[in-house]
Design goal:
The chain is mainly beta and 245 residues long. It contains two helices and 21 strands. It has a 21-stranded mixed sheet that branches. β6 and β7 form a beta hairpin. The relative contact order is 0.06.
Length: 245
């Protein structure tokens, strides 16, 4: 059933009255699904494991589809085309996704992108604030007075606080994306251009008396790797080195 057993149950229950039992819910771990239905109504419940995070769910169809998920630290519910979620602690889910985040989040969104959502997070010692409202997503680093805003429908991307500049960011199926933007923060200027898997990066930092440092490279954000060159020139000397990660 691979975690979406309720979808299969909906199709079966329209024509069959009875009990359905399945297995292997989630990614890499076992689970169980039990559902009962008849006519054009069906209800099911089950449990599973997503990357080491146990969860339970209830779902079905009663005039419109519904699905409720609960796991350590949070819960989410889909009713028709609206999703509501509340995470008193995001760390358990973040660990399952391979992220080092802690904090709280909540919101109400439709499948077409309407609604509001928020998150107050910490990445290491850095506090992050995320807000989605009026079709615009904002990320703010409060201790540094800088942030980014993005309107997905328009594709427009711009800086907040002491981060100036902007550009365009588009996302496609499977989180495929492409960006073309330039920003300035204090003495640093950064330009980005290209798709996530072949992103061209150019950064320059200049300060009086310290000379100029420039970084040129190409990164694959999906694979978390990249390579390029780092150069520095000042009245005291100059040098160049290759970098890769």
């Amino acid at each position: 059933w691979q975690g979406w057993a309720w979808v299969g149950l909906v199709g079966v229950a329209v024509v069959v009255r009875g009990v359905v039992v399945g297995g292997e819910v989630g990614r890499g771990k076992g689970g169980a699904v039990v559902g009962v239905g008849g006519g054009e109504q069906v209800a099911g419940k089950g449990e599973g494991n997503f990357a080491g995070l146990p969860f339970t769910f209830q779902g079905g169809y009663q005039g419109k589809p519904f699905l409720a998920l609960r796991w350590e630290g949070g819960e989410a519910a889909l009713t028709g085309e609206e999703v509501r979620f509340s995470l008193e602690e995001v760390a358990p889910l973040a660990r399952a996704l391979g992220l080092s985040l802690a904090g709280r989040a909540g919101g109400r969104l439709t499948l077409s992108g309407e609604g509001e959502a928020w998150a107050r997070l910490r990445y290491g010692g850095e506090p992050l604030a995320l807000d989605y409202r009026g079709g615009t997503l904002k990320l703010h680093l409060s201790e540094r007075n800088l942030g980014l805003a993005w309107n997905p429908q328009e594709g427009r991307l711009w800086g907040l606080g002491e981060l100036s500049g902007g550009g365009r960011l588009s996302l496609g199926p499977g989180l495929k994306g492409e960006v073309e933007a330039g920003f300035r923060y204090l003495g640093m200027a950064v330009r980005l251009k290209g798709p996530w898997e072949a992103l061209s990066l150019e950064a320059r930092y200049q300060r009086e008396g310290l000379g100029e440092t420039s970084l040129l490279g190409r990164v694959d954000l999906l694979a978390l790797r990249g390579q390029g060159t780092l150069r520095h020139a000042s009245p005291y000397g100059e040098g160049e080195m290759a970098w890769a990660w």
